[in-house]
Amino acid sequence: MTFLKLIDIHKTYEDAPLLCGVTFGVERGEIACLLGPSGSGKTTLLRIIAGLETAERGRVSIEGADVTALPAHRRGVVLMFQDYALFPHRTVAQNIAFGLRMWRHSRAAIAARVAEMLALTGLEDFADRDVNVLSGGERQRVALARSLAPQPRLLLLDEPLGALDRNLRERLLEDLPVILRRVGVTAITVTHDQEEAFALSDRVVLLNAGRVVQTGRPETLYDRPHNAWVARFLGLENLFPGRLRPPQEVEVAFATLDMPKGTALPQTDAEGQLLIHPWGIHLETGATNPFTAQVTRRTFHGSYFRLTLAVDGGALHLNVAPGQTPPAPGETVHGWIDPNALRWLST
Amino acid sequence: MPDNTDHESRITNHESRRVVRHSLLTTRHLLLVLPLLFLIFFYFYPLGAIFRVSLTWDGGPGLDALLRRLFGSTTLRTLGFTLGQALLSTLLTLLLGLPGAYVVARYDFPGKRLLNALTTVPFVLPTIVVATAFTAVLGPKSPLNTALMNTLNLTRPPLDLRYTLGAILLAHVFYNYTLVLRIVGSFWANLDPHLEQAARTLGASPWRAFVEVTLPLLLPALGAAALLVFIFCFTSFGVILILGGPRFATLEVAIYRQAIDMGNFPLAAGLSFIQILCTLGLTVVYTRLQGRLARPLDLRPRWVTQRKPRTAGEIAFVLANVVLGAALLGLPLVTLAARSFDAGLRYYTALFENPRGSIFYVPPVAAVGNSVKFALGTMTLASLLGMLTATALYRRKQGWILDALFMLPLGTSAVTLGLGYLLAMARPPLALRGTPALIVFGHTLVALPFVVRNVMPALQSIRPSLREAAATLGAPPARVFAEVDLPIVWRALAIGAVFAFTVSMGEFGATSMIARPELPTIPIAICRFLSQAGALNYGQALAMSTLLMAVCVTGFVVIESLRPPGSEW
């Protein structure tokens, strides 16, 4: 049985549709991620799951029970806010104990659980600290400890790393899933950053303009985006308008390319978009899918060079490891494209 | 290369700042001379006279005598009533104001801007107008009584709430309801709603979340509002004198009666002494409370914290509070204006007559002329002194003690001030008793804090780099002030000036102590009309009050139009 189910959620904000029939599920123990550009309705969706907003239509069920009408404090669903919302009039330990007190745990149980949470998040020495003097990273950990303390059925994290500076973000991007998996909590995070979504979650639910566009494992999503919008949103740039030449070829402005053997393509003469994964572009002469292009830009990024190649009808972008000396702007290059890196996106 | 330029510019910047600061420091001290002298002669000197008279009672350093007389049963009863009514008023105001503050803080609804603007009205309305308005609402000929008599076929009005504790409480709630709305509401409006929502998802019911999270965070604002309301009600004068009648007396009223009706200046001074100690104590409690309770809060912009009411319950709640606020603020004023026309224009034309045996030596309308003259004088003097004070003190670190010094008159009651003038200005060096100038000085002292409070934040809002840029471009300090500061603060100064004008027009407590009978101001005239029997006298009080209300509401409209959109004071 699916642990959390959202069925046909509708919500308008100031007469404009915000969520239009969102349906998806999350399994027990899974870490799901709602990914989408700002304004796609993901935070509102999270607030509807938490019970802080009500949907105009649709149902939310947890463990098979309909919770649509259940008030926030009886759902056992904790929301960790982007700004953490730590209670400024309480110490670190009192913040962590808050949910336990609300759920009427005994004093002894509260003390034990608070100590456990402090240890889990590495805050042992912070118990009696004033939350107002903590650094951003420390605040984030207090918020996490406070959210996990009452052992919520479901933990919701709104942009959990959004308020942190870059270095701390990168470190916590590794720590956060470790802590969540150790506890074994079912969690949904919300983010607009695809890298964060990929690193944190088992499954990504991609939202755009109030609709679910695609769901799946992060690597599947990246490898096989459903459409050009998804590809662009995930940072895939090599998109070319093309036309199918059945059975196995696609014609784009700069070449006619072989598609991988065994892919099921629609057997009609259809228009669409061709996505070329950058890892399939090889800058050496080859017999399969050969092309000629001119280098227009080369930038150095530390662990790789980024090249932009001008071809008829657009540009190819790819990264080159710095071991080899990449061609300079102005040079003409010959290369080939691995058919396995080609994806046909119908419109 | 870029590093180098950066370094150089930093040096220039630093040096220019030092130069500017140095030259301004000396100028600043000079700026304070005039305001300080004013404060010494027209605040501390009269207060000193009160202390001197109360402590030298019975001809010697009679602290014993003072205590014995003061703590006679009458004084104790007065003190008890003063505290009791202030406490009741405060509780009642909080009870009614808190839901209103919540509505203002969390909801966005049509007409909110208008309502917000209307909450300024009580701040500019003189107590005498409000008290008169409430006699019109609560008295025997009130619209309510007329309606009841017509529907129930009664021959006598069933309700006369004048001279009751209820009337006093109601008028105090009128005054302070918007104070709670403003202080608590604006603090609440910026309180992060995520805090309460976080508590909710952690398992707290709405009520529990309010008690555990919101209430503790609101405490500083609540405490501030409650204490201010308490202090205002504690020193209430016009409302008690007119709505309480002879049965009720606060310390403030007792001081007035002892000094003016009985001529017992030592007892009046002794009562003032107690009053000053009480307000001083309350102010100390207030600052200590605030220091202890204030927590660093992440304040949120309002568009994050406010939303439209959605469910039927929410709409009903918002509507109920809006109606309550509008009725509380609007009803007395509308009734006042309406009843002033009960006899057509008769009440107004009577103001121009000077019948034999009149309670005035001049046509009553002369009071209007007197008030306007005093108000213009007050406006000029208060603006000048206020501007000087604010310019000298706006850098808090250097001036917080002085800053507090200039706010002191706010915490001193008007009647006490008037008594101080009566006692101190009767003989040289400042033999000003009975002169029109003394009235202007008294009003200026009351109005000065308003000017300073309006101008200071405006000055503080100017980024130092603007002045530094002007200085490095060759402007000497006076020129910097004229070219940078003045264009930015003139609005604030104008608001302060209009405030000073309305404060002076409505000032009653101090004026009632020091005005000569043949030189009445509007509030004094109203008070005299109210103390006389007869429909025409009462009618003239209504007419005069309506005129004064019109002046103050005009002042309020000017203030509102001067205020930059979206700002609060």
Description:
The complex is a heterodimer of chains A (347) and B (569). In chain A, 24% of the residues lie in helices and 35% in strands. With 347 residues, chain A is α+β, with helices and mostly antiparallel strands. Chain A folds into three domains: 4-76 and 152-228, Rossmann fold (3-Layer(aba) Sandwich); 89-145, no CATH class; 237-346, OB fold (Dihydrolipoamide Acetyltransferase, E2P) (Beta Barrel). Chain A has a six-stranded mixed sheet, with helices on both faces. Chain B has 569 residues and is mainly alpha-helical. Chain B is globular, with a radius of gyration of 26 Å. Chains A and B meet through strand 6 and helix 2 of A and helix 9 and helix 10 of B.
Any key phrases for this structure?
heterodimer, A: 347 residues, Rossmann fold, 3 domains, five-stranded antiparallel sheet, 8 helices, 24% helix, B: 569 residues, mainly alpha, MetI-like fold
Percent in helix of chain A: 10-25%
Shape of chain B: globular
Low-confidence stretches of chain B: 1-23
Estimated share of beta-strand residues of chain A: 25-35%
| Beta strands of chain B, count | 0
Give the domain tally of chain A: 3
User: Radius of gyration of chain B, Cα only, in angstroms?
Assistant: 26 Å
Give me the side-by-side strand order of the main sheet of chain A.
6-7-8-3-9-10
CATH fold node name of the largest domain in chain B = MetI-like fold
Report the biggest beta sheet of chain B as strand number plus sense, adding barrel if it closes: none
Number of helices of chain A: 8
Helices and strands of chain B: which structural class?
mainly alpha
Spans where pLDDT lies below 50 across 5 or more residues of chain A = none
- Integer-rounded radius of gyration of chain A: 24 Å
Listing every helix as H and every strand as E from the N terminus to the C terminus, the arrangement of chain B reads HHHHHHHHHHHHHHHHHHHHHHHHH
